[in-house]
Write a structure and sequence with these properties.
The complex is a heterodimer of chains A (323) and B (348). By secondary structure, chain A is of the alpha/beta class. Chain A has a single domain, classed as Rossmann fold (3-Layer(aba) Sandwich), CATH 3.40.50. Helices cover 32% and strands 23% of the residues of chain A. In chain A, strands 6-7-8-3-9-10-12-11 form an eight-stranded mixed β-sheet, sandwiched between helices. Chain A has a four-stranded antiparallel β-sheet with strand order 2-1-4-5. The two termini of chain A are 34 Å apart. The mean pLDDT of chain A is 91. Chain B has 348 residues and is α/β, with parallel strands linked by helices. Chain B has 14 helices and twelve strands. In chain B, helix 5 crosses helix 6, helix 5 packs parallel to helix 7 and helix 7 packs parallel to helix 8. The chains are: A alpha/beta (323), B alpha/beta (348). Chain B: Belongs to the ABC transporter superfamily. Chain B: This is ABC transporter ATP-binding protein. Chain B: Pfam families: ABC_tran, oligo_HPY.
């Protein structure tokens, strides 16, 4: 398939109005084709979640969203609320970080899965239940018959996240958006979930957008990675390039900040300071305050463009590091 | 320092470990079924020591009992049995002034600085509070000066003293928590997931700070975390916990280079490798299912219900086996788990 599964173009999100307005996403563009996985990495406040929430019309007013979000040739930002509801859940599936807050505590697992199947695919109650049982089995839940009648509080964290994935996959969406889906889980459970998503994607060929603060999690899953900072894309590259030859000082900082299993060092290369306030962004490079390089007089005054520095490798800095 | 210890005791203590925990058990009452009361076995028969100026890492997943151990040491929960000695003094049996003095010497830094700082108190007042409680430094001016010193020590500017927690970033708040923990001049600091809720770049700042403080002040840490890489980075010794029990203990270098327990091996194999090429090609040990309920733990080895090497003998009580001098494992299948083919998957 040549058509992109999902793409955002020049997406901008402003929360609030007037002097307190926060520009949380600033001109973000990326795309992911069917059968491929895009990793979107950034720390809190980088705008990584806001980008996908805004593109699916999930931000409450007073958010101002401009740009476009293309799914199968249609711009989601131009659709009516009703049309969007027909697409979310049907062609665009979501899995969020905390399954306890995204599942309805008052409904059984069965009802939460069948709701979308009946609504979007017009299945009968009985057919939907059969499908729900099948889905639970494919996401690796033992004894699916019994679990259909369970309520969310009766399940473990890992099982709840499997139910979320079953719901997201229930209508065989074209695109799966997973927003920090393993952050609240134990490492051994995280490994199970990563494995499950990989296997489901191989079978169903959907496009996956995987949002995470953890470069290592994304490293094993994604084909391409976008690194966000202060509402902008600061680097974008195929996953091997990003890990092997990161060009932006921020990406290099992130890679050096994590302790790595089996490679002990005396000091971690911490990035000093804290991310910028989206209500008071610096005039120049968004990373300027914390940057160890600051290698160009324009850094403080001009916003660098996102420029190509290698094959499919883009970075937004005046001082790209040589490999 | 140890003003409450007898002279002979104090002399004795300098040579022994700072903290000595023996056979610690913590059980919580569970639901009642008829006339039978069930118990949550949160911590079962855990022993360890920490030498002065060193860090012990306590690693495990949710429900492993690692946080309960920290809470038991500070008497936030009452252990069911076992002893805890700090510098030879019985922490759990102490009463009155002696208990207060021991509490001064064990400080704690929690996971979430948003929840553990009083939102209506300035940073200065928060950091001064332990000084007030323990009646250290007489006079307002002296305490203020000490609070300013403490803020400087954790890398905050003096003006921070007048700020409220909501005005600070997550990393700054965690620095305030550390300054508060240092205020009463403790010997042992329990760090319970103290970097877990911070952004990656800030986590590194806090871990560097903690190690600098340890070098400067000779502090002793109990580093409680689910993060294997962070534990490896911070600790001299490690205890791996599962469902309230020790699975494996050893020096960090030895345990990480030669993990002997199938659970430790599974944990290590679950950590994503930072190199995408290695990550894609390596074999992972995927554990099936979820941990069993601590209300009704399996007999024998509690990991056996998910263990890829489990055999019939695993249902019997598990003896401690020495892998090498300072490296112990609670597993009867270590010969299999340490086979060269298996180990090749974990050792970097």
């Amino acid at each position: 398939m040549n058509a992109p599964g999902f793409a955002v173009q020049d997406l901008t999100v402003v929360l609030g109005r007037g002097r307190r307005a926060a520009r949380v996403v600033r001109g973000v563009s990326w795309s992911v084709e069917a059968g491929r996985t895009l990793g979107v990495v950034g720390e809190s406040g980088s705008g990584k979640s806001m980008t996908v929430l805004a593109s699916a019309g999930l931000l409450p007013p007073p958010a101002t969203v401009t740009g476009s979000a293309l799914l199968g040739g249609r711009d989601l930002l131009k659709l009516s609320r009703r049309e969007l509801e027909g697409i979310r859940g049907r062609r665009l599936g979501f899995v969020f970080q905390d399954p306890m807050t995204s599942l309805n505590p008052l409904l059984t697992v069965e009802r939460q899965i069948t709701e979308g199947i009946e609504e979007h695919l017009g299945a009968t109650r009985r057919a939907a239940r059969d499908r729900a049982r099948e889905l639970l089995a494919t996401v690796g839940i033992a004894d699916p018959d019994r679990r259909l009648d369970a309520y969310p509080h009766q399940l473990s964290g890992g099982m709840r996240q499997r139910v979320m994935i079953a719901i997201a996959l229930s209508c065989e969406p074209d695109v799966l958006v997973a927003d920090e889906p393993t952050t609240a889980l134990d490492v051994t459970t995280q490994a199970q979930i990563l494995d499950l998503v990989r296997e489901r994607q191989e079978r169903m060929g959907m496009a996956v957008v995987w949002i995470s603060h953890d470069l290592a999690v994304v490293g094993g899953l994604a084909d391409d990675v976008v690194v966000m900072y202060g509402g902008q894309v600061v680097e974008q590259a195929p996953v091997e390039t990003l890990h092997g030859a990161p060009a932006h000082p921020y990406t290099r900082g992130l890679l050096g900040a994590r302790p790595v299993l089996g490679k002990r060092r005396d000091r971690l290369t911490a990035i000093p300071g804290t991310p910028p306030d989206p209500r008071a962004l610096p005039p120049g490079c968004v990373f300027f305050d914390r940057c160890p390089v600051k290698g160009d007089p324009r850094c403080e005054t001009e916003v660098p463009d996102l420029l190509e520095v290698g094959r499919r490798h883009y970075t937004r800095t005046f001082c790209p590091e040589d490999q | 320092m140890s003003s409450t210890a007898g002279p002979g005791e104090a002399l004795d203590n300098r040579t022994g470990p700072l903290l000595d925990v023996r056979n610690l058990c913590v059980r919580f009452p569970g639901p009642r079924e008829g006339r039978h009361r069930s118990w949550v076995h949160a911590v079962e028969d855990v022993s360890f020591t920490i030498e002065r100026g060193r860090t012990l890492g306590l690693v495990g997943e949710s429900g492993s009992g690692k946080s309960t151990i920290g809470n038991a040491l500070t008497r936030l929960v009452q252990p069911t049995s076992g002893t805890v000695r700090l510098d030879g003094q019985d922490v759990l049996a102490a009463r009155g002034a002696r208990a207060r003095e021991l509490r001064r010497r064990i400080a704690m830094v929690f996971q979430d600085p948003y929840a553990s700082l009083d939102p209506r108190r300035t940073v200065g007042a928060t950091v001064r509070e332990p000084l007030d409680v323990h009646r250290m430094l007489s006079g307002r001016a002296g305490r203020k000066r000490r609070a300013a010193e403490l803020l400087d020590l954790v890398g905050l500017v003096p003006e921070t003293a007048a700020r409220y927690p909501h005005e600070l970033s997550g990393g700054q708040r965690q620095r305030v928590s550390i300054a508060r923990a240092l205020a009463a001049d403790p010997d042992l600091i329990i760090l319970d997931e103290s970097t877990a809720s911070l952004d990656v770049s800030v986590q590194a700042q806090i871990m560097n700070l903690l190690r600098e403080l340890q070098d400067e002040l000779g502090l002793t840490y109990l580093f409680v975390s689910h993060d294997l890489a962070a534990v490896e980075h911070m600790s001299h010794h490690v205890v791996v916990m599962y469902l309230g029990r020790r699975m494996e203990t050893g020096t960090t270098d030895h345990l990480y280079s030669r993990p002997a327990h199938p659970y430790t091996q599974a944990l290590m194999s679950a950590v994503p490798d930072t190199d995408p090429a290695t990550e894609r090609n390596r074999e992972r040990i995927l554990l099936g299912g979820d941990p069993p309920s601590p209300l009704d733990p399996p007999s024998g080895c509690v990991f056996r219900t998910r263990c890829p090497l489990a055999a019939g003998e695993c249902a019997e009580p598990v003896p401690k086996t020495a892998v090498s001098g300072d490296h112990d494992v609670w597993c009867v299948r270590t010969e299999e788990s340490l086979s060269p083919e298996r180990l090749r998957r974990f050792v970097h």
